Structure to design on (131 residues):
């Protein structure tokens, strides 16, 4: 039996992101953000996500962007609630665990959790008018 390997290359990152998006786009809880709130051109969007996670996990400075601003803008159109973040994280962790195991797989889950927390915090602050 082939053992599950850690995330090691850009190809691994692409496989992870592709598998995650297959789940997300069809999902009853959060799918609408990707298909109706922001109708995405996946040929443009997925390479951005590849670079984001390559930057995050393989420490290469290939992502330039501001995810917080994008999600704050999205929340203003269609509220991002705790159950949406919980579902996003559940699908992300499930995908990571299906394909990978090891230090970077753990890091992928940990960083996603931290960013999701920060994002929820910023969404809250914007709604309260703090920034
Ligand atoms: C409720 C949870 C989330 C939903 C529904 C969601 C949905 C989306 C959507 C629809 C976009 C496209 C926005 C646009 O192009 O205008 C996007 C972009 C993005 N998301 Fe999320 N997201 C969520 C949480 C997260 C988290 C926790 C992370 C990071 C760990 C993340 C990372 C990104 C990145 C890097 C982009 C691309 C930003 C750019 O264009 O530079 N998202 N997300």
């Amino acid at each position: 039996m082939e053992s599950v390997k850690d995330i090691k290359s850009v190809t691994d990152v692409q496989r992870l992101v592709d598998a995650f998006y297959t789940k997300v786009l069809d999902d009853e809880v959060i799918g609408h953000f990707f298909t109706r709130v922001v109708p995405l051109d996946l040929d443009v969007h997925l390479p951005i996500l590849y670079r984001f996670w390559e930057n995050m996990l393989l420490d290469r400075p290939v992502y330039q962007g501001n995810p917080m601003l994008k999600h704050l803008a999205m929340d203003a159109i269609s509220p991002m609630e705790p159950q949406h973040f919980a579902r996003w994280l559940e699908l992300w962790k499930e995908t990571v665990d299906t394909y990978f195991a090891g230090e970077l797989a753990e890091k992928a889950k940990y960083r996603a959790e931290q960013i999701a927390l920060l994002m929820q915090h910023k969404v809250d602050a914007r709604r309260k008018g703090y920034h």
In short: The two ends are 53 Å apart (CA to CA). The mean pLDDT is 96.
